[in-house]
């Protein structure tokens, strides 16, 4: 589905009253958006288990923190897609840079909570949009940024989570032992490659969805 300005969205379980909007990561380089392997794996595993949740995956126009405002616009447009598909509340699921995107997009009236998966939550990020909402963070214990290998330190996301707590934001912080940066990669052929401990990422996301779907 084409979004305004050239972004795209993929929708599963259209017509459900609750939405999960999945925002991808990015890099320092200004490059064209791609579909997230981690988001795709989560939707593949969870959409059949949660028929009462409409899943909306976002492909940014440009996936770069240098174009963060545009990424937030794309995620906000995806929230509008969720609303048009019948959702009354949305959980923003942000992987890596998508964590920052989700926090900023959480100002939208449909957004009620954020689930950050190895989220990038830099000190300069405005967390004000989380007031009155919930923030849950899941991070791999072995996640690190290495030369030519993207990653986010758990210490970094923990600091962002604690800043949110200081604003009165409720939530939780969980670490996956031996977890890496997300739960999947994409091979050059386009095939999804499941990373070690991928089941733990799916289990944490499922628990967050269950809690969100059950909340009022």
Give keywords.
Rossmann fold; 5 helices; single chain; 9 strands; alpha/beta; 216 residues; globular; two-stranded antiparallel ribbon; seven-stranded mixed β-sheet
Question: What this model shows, in words?
Answer:
- The protein has 216 residues and is α/β, with parallel strands linked by helices.
- The protein has one domain: 3-Layer(aba) Sandwich (Rossmann fold).
- The protein is built from five helices and nine strands; from the N terminus they run ββαβαβαββαβββα.
- The strands form two sheets. A seven-stranded mixed β-sheet has the order 1-3-2-4-5-6-7, with helices on both faces. A two-stranded antiparallel sheet has the order 8-9.
- Helix 2 crosses helix 3.
- The chain is globular.
- The model has no long low-confidence stretch (mean pLDDT 94).
Specify the overall morphology.
globular
Mean pLDDT: 94
Using DSSP, what is the number of strands? Answer: 9
Q: What is the third-level CATH name, the topology?
A: Rossmann fold
Proportion of residues in β-strands: 15-25%
Describe the structure concisely for a colleague.
This protein has 216 residues and is α/β, with parallel strands linked by helices. The protein has helices at 37-46, 68-84, 97-105, 154-166, 198-214; strands spanning 8-12, 18-23, 53-59, 89-95, 111-117, 134-140, 170-176, 184-186, 192-194. It has a single domain, classed as Alpha/Beta hydrolase fold, catalytic domain (Rossmann fold, 3-Layer(aba) Sandwich).
